[in-house]
Amino acid sequence: MTLEGSRRDVEARMNRSATRLSNTFGACDRERGFTLVELVTVITLAAIFATLAGPPFRDFIIQQRIRNAAFELMSDIVYARSEAVKRNTTVTISKVGTWAGGWTVAAGATTLRTHPALNNNITISMGSSSVDFGLNGRASSSVGFTIDDTGGSATITARCVSIDPSGRPQSVQGSCS
Asked: What is d(CA 157, CA 73) in angstroms, rounded to the nearest whole number?
């Protein structure tokens, strides 16, 4: 056998192997991907699920904002109470415009902490414009803050942050009575 003949044999074997490989991979190439019908079906199902999940998810977000506002208020109440005891002076929490517009914690003329306005969907109602904590950490009176959503949705529960005479805050579901 000559050199030229062996070269042709090697090339022929390589061509046969390449043909087998391309046939194997070519079959896979034709089977990969999605058809237009499958794609439209999946998009339609995703749209239906998004439509069904939308309203409950909106209510969940508003409920979480109410809970957040309640715990932020409670945090500042606890802070004001502890500062009153620590500084041995009266510390006041007072609203900025409305309670939903924010509040400040102050010891006399010194502002200790300021809370920014809440989300537009949240309202806070309370009869008084401020709460004082005395030297011993007791509140000037028992008060309750009702935190609710402005839309008045029946599925959203208000929260009540109440302060007992000893100055301890408590957050519970429902309006303050």
From this structure: 17
